[in-house]
Amino acid sequence: MAEFTCGFIGLGLIGGSLAKAVHTKLPEAHLIAYDTNASSLELAYGDGVIQEICPVIGAAFEACDYIFLCAPVSYNDENLMNLKKHISSHAILTDVGSVKTGIHEHIAAIGLDSQFIGGHPMAGSERFGYANSKASLFENAYYILTPTETVAQEKISAFRTLVQNIGAIPLVLPYEQHDYVTAAISHLPHVIAASLVNLVKNTDSEEGIMKMIAAGGFKDITRIASSSPEMWQQICLTNTENISLLLEQYIESLTAYKRFLDQKDADKLYSFFDTARSYRESFIDASSGPIKTEYVITVDIADKPGAIAAIASLLAMHDISIKNIGINHNRELAEGALRIEFYEDSSYSGAVKVLQGHGYPIHMKK
Questions:
Q1: Which residues, including other chains, have CB under 8 Å from residue 166's CB and lie 6 or more apart?
Q2: Which of 65-74, 120-129, 255-264 bottoms out in mean pLDDT, i.e. has the lowest?
Q3: Torsion angle of C-alpha atoms 252, 254, 259, 260, degrees rounded to 10
């Protein structure tokens, strides 16, 4: 791509990661940013990620080819009113919010339809803030685009190209469909995770036994409950109708399951888990699915100093790269004491061969 200018309003986790991704993948880009948090701007400038700090949303944004609204959703209306008189006719305006109806309605109300393409990068973290941002956050992640009906096709094509260049996978959807889909696969799961954590909190013993031994499945499905309360408050207030509709259906499914449980209906209980297992595994089998194949083994090792280092050294001697390594403190869902994850199949297969050849008992899951 030729030299261009990107403006960022907000440099938190998503805004900062986008800025880092553009800076890393498209070094010819000139990046400017505004944020109410001066330390985030100073960090980004010190990193060389942005080339200009904007103390206000002002004339500096007139040179932008792309402008990303990355501040909390509750600030969008005010930021757009300040930005409107400084946005050029050729610029592409986008946002990163996980709810699209409200921003589309506001964009229509202030007459910026012809320049707006809603955006939702389907990536994130339970951590937040610029300090936790990273250029690789969007690699191989879906990035949903919700263009208005009047935005030019060439603007959509240009933005798709930018998304692809930072390593993400663009997917164009009507904004109404986006909000229903994300309510099911993102928003409702956060509600469920938080409610499960609160259930354990409210039913645990005074000694905190549940909290002490919580691991395996509980940690897996409640990790997202550590996300920003402010962000999820705003999501629930802006996608209320879709979340409420799907929550009602979910409650009905739990009520049906409780009935099967109380009746000790073995066939219905089996079908409940088997249907879920089969459908979930179809996500992994689909090349375009949201859950990618993991290359993971678990290894039985002796509980003594140097045991982990010995395995890491052995794999390094055979030029096998490790993506992640950690100890299984709980055997609820996994065999083996040491969990090792690899980047690709060749490393996974090579590690299995090497470790088995040296007598390590391993358990494979891919």
A1: 18, 21, 22, 25, 26, 138
A2: 120-129
A3: 120
Question: Which amino acid appears at position 29 of this protein?
Answer: A
The token duo for 256 is 């049906």
List pLDDT tens digits, range 256-290: 999 999 999 999 999 999 999 998 888 754 444 44
Q: Where does residue 319 fall: left (phi above 0), alpha (psi -120 to 50 degrees), or beta otherwise?
A: left
Listed residue (302, 296, 280) closest to 340, CA to CA: 296
pLDDT digits (tens, 9 = 90+) for 162-191: 999 999 999 999 999 999 999 999 999 999
Report CA dihedral (324, 325, 330, 335) to the nearest 10 degrees.
100
Rounded CA-CA distance 7/34 in Å is 8
Q: How many other CB atoms are found less than 10 A from the CB of residue 161?
A: 11
Cα angle 226-296-302, degrees, rounded to a multiple of 5 = 95
Q: From CA 39, how far away is CA 59, in angstroms rounded?
A: 22
Question: Phi-psi category of 123—alpha, beta or left, where left has phi over 0 and alpha has psi -120 to 50?
Answer: beta
Q: Is 340 helix (H, G, I), strand (E, B) or coil?
A: strand
Neighbouring residues of 271: CB distance < 8 A, sequence distance ≥ 6: none
Q: Which two tokens stand for residue 301?
A: 């090792």
| Overall pTM surpassing 0.90 (yes/no) | no
Strands 5-9 and 30-34: what pairing?
parallel
How far is residue 148's CA from residue 142's CA, in Å, rounded to a whole number? 19
Name the amino acid, one letter, at 283. Answer: F
Closest CA to 123 of 237, 14, 39: 14
Cα–Cα distance for residue pair 171/189, rounded to 1 Å? 22
Q: Does the pLDDT value for residue 292 go beyond 70?
A: no
What is the rounded CA–CA span in Å between residue 143 and residue 148? 16
